[in-house]
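User: Quick sanity check before I run a bigger batch. Here is a single chain. Can you write out its predicted 3D structure?
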Amino acid sequence: MSALPRLVVITDWRLPRARLLSALERALEAGPEVAVQHRHPDAPARAFLEEARWLAELCRARGNPLFVNGRLDVALLVGAHLHLPAHGPTVADVRPHLPAGRLVSVAVHDRDEALLARGADLALVSPVYAPGSKPGDTRPQLGPEGFQALAASVPCPALALGGITPERASLLPGAHGFAVISAVLEAEDPAAVARALLRPAPLFRQERG
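Assistant: Done. Predicted structure follows.
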């Protein structure tokens, strides 16, 4: 089984491609615990696959994990792990089709979705705070207490997603790690932000031990 990432940087293809890939490259400098999730819901299938190939090359060269959002076929074609959005195929649906060692992450927004996370390796629990990449998002925010309660109900490690910054990360000691978009991709120094986001979780594990 592959090691679980503690930071997932989700793509935002509204950014210029060169800027996006440069920010991802810098973020991956923070180490092997940083993963990329390829998300581009409006992309045609062929363009989505081509983007996945760019990202797979970027991650493979540095030894970092790549997750593909919602497309089992693309994940298989580029040798990536798989992320399952809510209201789509379940872990039980896709696991038999994945090679040994491939990870499956799932989106979790409430307790019903937490129950469907059985068999997943990671859960991306959101929205903890208002997402910086979605200024019009009107979903209720979980906040630290809501995140901790929902994270405790999933049967796998939970990453906090939605408005996460290094400052807010320190308020979420129950998180295995974090998933972010704008906090890293729009940072002046993506590597520094990625390193900062990787710091809180080891303290939590040490305290529990």
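The chain has one domain: 7-208.

User: Great, the batch can go ahead then.
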